[in-house]
Amino acid sequence: MNKTALGGIRILELSRFLPGGLATQMLGDLGADVIKIEQPGVGDLMRTFPPMGKQDSGTFLIGNRNKRSITLNLKSEMGKEVVGKLAARADVIVEGFRPGIADRLGMGYETLQEINPRLIYCSISGYGQSGPYRDVPGHDMNYLGITGMMQLIARPEIGPLVPGPLFADIGGGSMMAVFGILAAIVARQTTGKGQFIDVSMTDGAMHFMHSHASDYLLAGTEPAGGVQRVAGGSAAYNVYRCADDKHITLGIIEDHFWERLHKLVAHEDFPATPFPSPEETTKAKRVLNDFFATKPRDEWVKILWDLDIPAGPVNSLSEAFADPQMIAREMLLHVDHPVEGSLPQIGFPVKFSDTPGQITRPPPTLGQHTSEILTELGYPDNVIHNFREAGVT
């Protein structure tokens, strides 16, 4: 087996939704030993989120590989004792409760860092541990609305659109948590101490607004979907329907790419620059709408790529997984699962030359490793049996 980037790092996951679960999966892909703590008889709420596999949901199965699962009643005294013992041996805890709940359960940062001063404790929440929205419930779209992103995922004639990808959950939550945890692990090598990491999915989503924030913060212009250059307002950076009713993306920013397209289009109403006046932009959109409607999508992609123009297909998800680039980059993998059989998985987003990501465990069944983990903590078989009978596990 190849060496891993995070071999020897142990992570406890107290999360019932996607952001924490995906964050720990990414760390598990890099070699961390991830122990997922779940509610007895219920488990991660993502286990029942459609579509369903033979036993667990597809949402759970695609975001929980490389983990071990232990069931614990966190409200029981013995359950809390087990968490304390796990925390004493852990490097990182990731929790996704609403602010204050972990403290009320007796497993907040202040409590567990007394047991293990080297513990890195990452809390992922919608709005963070401070501020007037701290206790407000929410999900991905609510956070995007707060940041102004929904106003950019919009068109003047219909207003904001519901986005498909979970930008705040994954980009603002999962990835920011991984970033923070890895930085804290590096810092601990110098300080010898762990620390608390407060990940707000709203704060994380706000970082997606960098290119648009400059319009407002520096130029005093309020960017809007369908108006701002890279939010649908430009002909050069837009989506066009082709003859087969499929769509093509055009992503031109630099003048030299536009010059190549200008020669290809060869229309008197087509402006000479990619970002002309609003009137000229309207003309350019009209010309390109008619132009791209004359050939099927894939034919246009070949023509534009042959001319070294930034363009591409708008793939369906089935087309995306079959795309030769995705295949070459191994972005669709499979792992054998004891219940589901051959289970498809999204591949590793970052490729390492020396410590590549690995799938060493399929997503766990609920409580699959409870006895194994309790044995590692020194509990004898009769106590493990009693835990089960008493509802602790």
Automatic annotation (TrEMBL):
Identify a single GO molecular function assigned to this protein. Answer: transferase activity
Alphabetical UniProt keywords: Transferase
The record ties this protein, via SUPFAM superfamilies, to: CoA-transferase family III (CaiB/BaiF)
Q: Which InterPro entries match?
A: CoA-transferase_III (IPR050509), CoA-Trfase_fam_III (IPR003673), CoA-Trfase_III_dom_1_sf (IPR023606)
**Name under which the protein is recorded:** CoA transferase
Per the UniProt record, the source organism is Limoniibacter endophyticus
